[in-house]
Amino acid sequence: MRILLLNYEFPPLGGGAGNASAQIAKCLARMGVEVAVVTSRYHGLAPYEVKEGCTIYRVPVVRRYLDHCSIAEMATFVASAAFSMRSIIKSFSPNVLLVFFGMPTGPLGLYAKKLFRLPYILSLRGGDVPGFLAGELGLSHRMVGSITKAVWNDASAVVANSEGLAKLAQRSYDKGVVHVIPNGVDISTFYPMGPIGRKRCSNDTMSMIFVARLVEQKGAKLILQAMSGIAGRLQRPIKLEIIGKGPEEESLKSIVEDLGLNEMVCFSGWLERSGVADRMRHSDVFVFPSYEEGMPNVVLEAMACGLPIITTDIYAIRGLVEDGVNGILIPPGDAQALGEAIVALGSDPVMAQAMGQESLEIVKQYDWMKSAEAYLRLAEGAV
């Protein structure tokens, strides 16, 4: 079996979806599948390399940032990859394509099917599904609606990474069932430090961590508002570390200044995954008040580090975080509820310890190898 994986983002580029495609590619290679990847080239990255059993082709693109890119920059990947794929497909001779994102990558799967009669599996990740962040992405979804429909309908299988995302996608897909293949977690990188709760049972500073692209969707601003609203209610100091880059960074720094939170909040920028894992191990609570998600890798990673989770009650989270069990769920956009959750965990280290232990138990069911096996079954069916 030879699988050609397409994703405009692949580590070190991008976020959760890039990481997911890399983990699945690596696991497929471990199972004996020949895997090649077509992705974007960025400053200093080799145009061709073999890594962890996978052959990686990086095509020239216009891209300014490591962690995110614009729609116009995505379009340069589609054009460049379409040009390069002829020779890559002829030399690699794949049996099937695994395409991450209906847009912008999906049309490349359709292109390969029409030109080379190759089947493709389509993996939906969130923002490429009509109805996801409807206020922010609704116009974009409508503009590419006909292309999206063609890409989905010609796929041998359509996959979502959570039950909630599958239900949302099913509204726009009447040709068959949207399969669910959840994300996994790399426990060789993300694991707890010593006995769970060792630090959380102490009376020193309560350290919170937030990891995400700094965009409105992820809700970093809400954490700052919540912290301002609970000033003085905890008997120990609070610290928040924000890890990530994005267009909201300067705005968030201004809010920190305006709310007088300079001594409580630090910005650490973009970190390698090993650096993120190390920061998580030294934290007490993971806070993630996102407004909408497909299936957030970063929540799984925090759980694998034994952290209690404060997050929003949205469909992508409910299967990961059980309210009162391994974390606290709050309504989206509710800064007051978020503040109360912070106070609750900060005031009761024993409860935080128990929730962290539950996170470790729940996360055991999420395994990248199982995800890769599920994709392989679909690929075999497509062939």
Please characterize this protein's 3D structure:
By secondary structure, the chain is an alpha/beta fold. It folds into two domains: about 1-185 and about 365-380, Glycogen Phosphorylase B (Rossmann fold); about 205-365, Glycogen Phosphorylase B (Rossmann fold, 3-Layer(aba) Sandwich). It has helices at about 15-30, 70-90, 105-115, 135-145, 145-155, 165-170, 220-230, 250-260, 275-280, 295-305, 315-320, 335-345, 350-365, 370-380; strands at about 1-5, 35-40, 50, 55-60, 95-100, 120-125, 155-160, 180, 205-210, 240-245, 265-270, 285-290, 310, 325-330. An eight-stranded mixed β-sheet has the order 3-4-2-1-5-6-7-8, with helices on both faces. Helix 3 crosses helix 5.
Sequence-ordered SSE layout with sheet pairings:
Elements: E1 2-6, H1 16-30, E2 34-40, E3 48-51, E4 54-59, H2 71-92, E5 96-100, H3 106-116, E6 120-124, H4 134-143, H5 145-154, E7 157-160, H6 163-170, E8 178-180, E9 206-211, H7 220-229, E10 238-243, H8 249-258, E11 265-269, H9 273-281, E12 285-288, H10 297-304, E13 309-312, H11 315-318, E14 327-330, H12 335-347, H13 349-363, H14 368-382
Parallel strand pairs: 1-2, 1-5, 2-4, 5-6, 6-7, 7-8, 9-10, 9-12, 10-11, 12-13, 13-14
Antiparallel strand pairs: 3-4
Spatial extent as radius of gyration? 21 Å
In sequence order, what are the helices and strands, one letter per element?
EHEEEHEHEHHEHEEHEHEHEHEHEHHH
pLDDT < 50 runs, ≥5 residues: none
Structural class: alpha/beta
Terminal CA distance reads: 9 Å
Write out the CATH superfamily name of the largest domain. Glycogen Phosphorylase B
**What is the 3D shape?**
globular
Helix content: 40-55%
Largest sheet: 8 strands, mixed
Tally of extended strands?
A: 14
Please tell me the CATH architecture of the largest domain by its name. 3-Layer(aba) Sandwich
| CATH fold-level label of the largest domain | Rossmann fold
Lateral arrangement of strands in the main beta sheet: 3-4-2-1-5-6-7-8
Please report which band the strand proportion falls in: under 5%, 5-15%, 15-25%, 25-35%, 35-45% or over 45%: 15-25%
